[in-house]
C-alpha cells in the first residue's frame, strides 16, 4: 500500500541522512517485490492511488485507517499482487518507483521452459500483473479462430437431435489458420475467403452393428457448397448453392483443411439411421462463443519462493530443493493444533514451531505462463497474436481520442 | 469520448466503448508510472454494458495527451514483448537439437 510507504518515509528521513540513493529498507523492498503468503485466506485491499503532492493530508488519513484497521482485523493487511504502482510512492525517500518504458525494455526477459506443437510454458520476468492478465484474457476470448457456425441438415434419422448435433459440431477444433480468412457479417455472401465448407454423409446399413461417427469422416469441400438453394430456372444453368466460391480454396491454401483431432465422436448410428449435412465454418472470437476460443486454456502463476527463516533441526541442513514446483498449498505454514502447545509452552518452544520456520512468498513480477492450444495455431503464434491484438486496441483508442 | 471541464484540461474522464478490464487495467498501470499523473483509475459502470470509464488527473498537462502517451508507451511495451518472445523462441529452437531435453529452470 502506498500509504504504508508514506508513513515510514517520514521516520526514515528524520533518522538517516538522504545519502543512500535508490535504496529502500529491506522490509519495504520485500513488500514492493514480493507477495507474502499467509496461512489464512488472502485479505484484499483496493489499491489506493495517492496524490504525490498531498503528503500531510494522506498521512492523517492513513493513520486513521491503520488504527481502524488494527482494531478490526487481527492480522496484518497486505495488498496482494498489485503492489506499489504509483511512480511517486517513495518520492520523498529518494527512491524512484517508476517503471519507464526504457527500464522495462532493459529488464524484461522471456525464458521458454517447454515448447511443443500443442502447448508451451514460459517465464515472463519484469512485467506487471495487469499486462500478464491482459494477455491471458485476450488469449482466451479475443484471438480469432474458425469454427462451424451453420449446419444445413439434409437428413438426420439418428437419436441425436439436430441442434445437439450442430452444437457438437461447433465445438470441434478445426485445423485452419484464421489469419487467412476474413470475418463474415450478416449481409455478406459466403465465399472462399470467409467460409470453410464441410460435408458429412454417413449411414448405418440395416442388419449391421451400431457405428460411431468420428470427426475424421467430415469431408472438406474446397469448391464450396454442393447443396442447391432452389431449383434452377433453366435446366442447363448452374444451380445456385449456399456459397459462391469464385475459385477453389485449394489454390489459396497450402495444406488441406481438416479437423485437428480425428477421433472425436460426433454421433452414434444404429442400423437404418443416417446423417447427411453440410456445415459452414466461419471466423469468430471466444467472446461471442467459447467454440471460437483458440486455447484449451491459458493461465499464469507467480514464481513461488520458499525461504527458511530459522535453522531446522534434524541432523543435516535443510535446503529448498525446487521452489518452482511449489503449488502454494500452504501446508508448510499451517499452524497445527496440538495439546502440548496450548498448555503453557515456553517462548523458546513457540518460536521453533515448524510452521513459523518457513516463509512462503511469490515474486511479484515473475510469471510462469502456460498456453495450451487446441490446434489451429501454434502456442507461440497465439501469444504473438494476443500481443498484436492489445496493440490494436491501443491504436483504436488513440485514433478515437484524436 | 472525453468528459471534462472546458477551462481545466488536466482532469477528465474518458468513456471508451467496447472495452473491458483487458485494456483498462493495463492502461491504468502504465498511467500510474507516468510522473505527470496525480490520479488515475478506471471503473466499469455496469458489467452488462461494454463500457469503461478511465479517470485521469494530471499535474498540469492536458489529460488527453497524457492518456495518449500512456497508450503509446503500452504499444511500445507490446512490441518489445513480441520481439523478445521471437528471439526466445528462436534461441529455444536453436538449442533444442543440441540439448534434446528441457532447459532446467528448476535450479532457481
Automatic annotation (TrEMBL), chain A:
PROSITE patterns: RNA_POL_D_30KD. The chain crosses the membrane at residues 54-73. Its main location: nucleus. It comes from the Eukaryota. GO terms for biological process: DNA-templated transcription. InterPro entries: DNA-dir_RNA_pol_30-40kDasu_CS, DNA-dir_RNA_pol_insert, DNA-dir_RNA_pol_RpoA/D/Rpb3, RBP11-like, RNAP_Rpo3/Rpb3/RPAC1, RNAPI/III_AC40, RNApol_insert_sf, Rpo3/RPB3_RNA_Pol_subunit. CDD domains: RNAP_I_II_AC40. SUPFAM superfamilies: Insert subdomain of RNA polymerase alpha subunit, RBP11-like subunits of RNA polymerase. Residues 119-400 form the DNA-directed RNA polymerase RpoA/D/Rpb3-type domain. Keywords: DNA-directed RNA polymerase, Membrane, Nucleus, Transcription, Transmembrane, Transmembrane helix. One of its GO terms (cellular component) is RNA polymerase I complex. Pfam families: RNA_pol_A_bac (PF01000), RNA_pol_L (PF01193). One of its GO terms (molecular function) is DNA-directed RNA polymerase activity. The keyword Transcription applies. Belongs to the archaeal Rpo3/eukaryotic RPB3 RNA polymerase subunit family. This is DNA-directed RNA polymerases I and III subunit RPAC1. It comes from Miscanthus lutarioriparius.
UniProtKB/TrEMBL annotation, chain B:
Its main location: nucleus. One of its GO terms (biological process) is transcription by RNA polymerase III. It is found in: Nucleus. Belongs to the archaeal Rpo11/eukaryotic RPB11/RPC19 RNA polymerase subunit family. Gene3D superfamilies: RNA polymerase, RBP11-like subunit. It comes from Miscanthus lutarioriparius. Pfam families: RNA_pol_L_2 (PF13656). SUPFAM superfamilies: RBP11-like subunits of RNA polymerase. One of its GO terms (cellular component) is RNA polymerase I complex. It comes from the Eukaryota. Keywords: DNA-directed RNA polymerase, Nucleus, Transcription. One of its GO terms (molecular function) is DNA binding. CDD domains: RNAP_I_III_AC19. This is DNA-directed RNA polymerases I and III subunit RPAC2. Residues 12-82 form the DNA-directed RNA polymerase RBP11-like dimerisation domain. InterPro entries: RBP11-like, RBP11-like_dimer, RNA_pol_Rpb11_13-16kDa_CS, RNAP_AC19, Rpo11-like.
Amino acid at each position: 500500500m502506498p500509504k504504508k510507504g508514506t508513513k515510514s518515509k517520514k521516520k526514515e528521513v528524520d533518522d538517516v541522512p538522504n545519502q543512500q540513493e535508490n535504496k529502500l529498507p529491506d522490509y519495504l523492498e520485500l513488500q514492493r517485490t514480493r507477495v507474502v503468503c499467509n496461512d489464512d485466506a488472502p485479505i484484499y485491499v483496493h489499491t489506493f492511488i495517492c496524490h504525490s503532492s498531498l503528503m500531510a493530508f494522506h498521512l492523517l488519513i492513513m493513520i486513521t485507517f491503520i488504527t481502524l484497521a488494527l482494531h478490526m482485523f487481527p492480522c496484518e493487511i497486505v495488498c496482494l499482487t498489485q503492489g506499489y504502482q504509483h511512480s511517486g510512492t517513495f518520492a520523498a525517500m529518494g527512491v524512484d518507483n517508476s517503471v519507464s518504458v526504457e527500464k522495462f525494455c532493459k529488464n524484461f526477459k522471456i525464458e521458454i521452459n517447454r515448447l511443443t506443437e500443442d502447448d508451451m510454458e514460459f517465464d515472463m520476468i519484469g512485467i506487471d500483473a495487469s499486462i500478464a492478465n491482459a494477455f491471458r484474457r485476450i488469449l482466451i476470448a479475443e484471438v480469432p479462430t474458425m469454427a462451424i457456425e451453420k449446419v444445413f441438415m439434409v437428413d438426420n434419422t439418428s437419436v441425436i437431435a439436430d441442434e445437439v448435433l450442430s452444437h457438437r459440431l461447433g465445438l470441434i477444433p478445426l485445423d485452419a489458420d484464421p489469419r487467412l480468412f476474413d470475418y463474415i457479417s450478416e449481409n455478406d455472401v459466403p465465399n472462399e475467403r470467409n467460409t470453410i465448407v464441410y460435408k458429412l454423409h454417413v449411414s448405418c446399413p440395416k442388419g449391421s452393428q451400431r457405428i460411431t461417427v468420428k470427426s475424421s469422416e467430415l469431408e472438406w469441400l474446397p469448391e464450396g457448397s454442393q447443396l442447391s438453394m432452389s431449383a434452377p430456372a433453366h435446366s442447363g444453368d448452374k444451380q445456385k448453392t449456399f456459397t459462391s466460391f469464385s475459385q477453389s480454396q485449394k489454390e489459396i491454401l497450402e495444406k488441406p483443411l481438416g479437423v485437428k483431432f480425428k477421433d472425436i465422436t460426433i454421433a452414434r448410428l444404429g442400423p437404418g439411421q443416417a446423417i447427411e449435412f453440410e456445415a459452414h465454418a466461419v471466423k469468430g472470437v471466444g467472446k461471442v462463443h467459447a467454440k471460437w476460443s483458440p486455447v484449451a486454456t491459458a493461465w499464469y502463476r507467480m514464481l513461488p519462493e520458499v525461504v527458511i527463516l530459522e535453522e531446522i533441526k534434524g541432523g543435516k541442513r535443510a535446503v529448498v530443493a525446487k521452489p518452482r514446483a511449489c503449488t502454494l498449498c500452504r501446508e508448510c505454514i499451517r499452524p497445527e493444533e496440538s495439546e502440548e502447545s496450548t498448555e503453557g509452552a515456553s517462548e523458546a518452544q513457540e518460536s521453533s514451531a515448524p510452521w513459523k520456520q518457513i516463509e512462503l512468498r511469490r515474486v511479484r513480477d515473475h510469471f510462469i505462463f502456460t498456453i495450451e492450444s487446441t490446434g489451429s495455431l501454434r502456442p507461440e503464434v497465439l501469444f504473438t497474436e494476443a500481443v498484436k491484438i492489445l496493440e490494436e486496441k491501443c491504436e483504436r483508442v488513440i485514433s478515437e481520442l484524436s | 469520448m472525453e468528459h471534462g471541464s472546458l477551462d481545466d484540461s488536466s482532469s477528465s474522464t474518458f468513456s471508451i466503448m467496447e472495452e473491458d478490464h483487458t485494456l483498462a487495467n493495463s492502461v491504468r498501470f502504465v498511467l500510474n508510472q507516468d510522473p505527470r499523473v496525480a490520479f488515475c483509475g478506471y471503473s466499469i459502470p455496469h458489467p452488462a454494458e461494454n463500457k469503461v470509464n478511465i479517470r485521469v488527473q494530471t499535474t498540469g498537462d492536458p489529460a488527453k495527451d497524457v492518456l495518449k502517451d500512456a497508450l503509446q508507451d503500452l504499444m511500445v511495451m507490446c512490441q518489445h514483448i513480441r520481439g523478445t518472445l521471437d528471439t526466445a523462441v528462436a534461441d529455444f529452437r536453436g538449442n533444442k537439437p543440441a540439448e534434446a531435453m528441457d532447459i532446467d529452470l528448476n535450479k532457481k
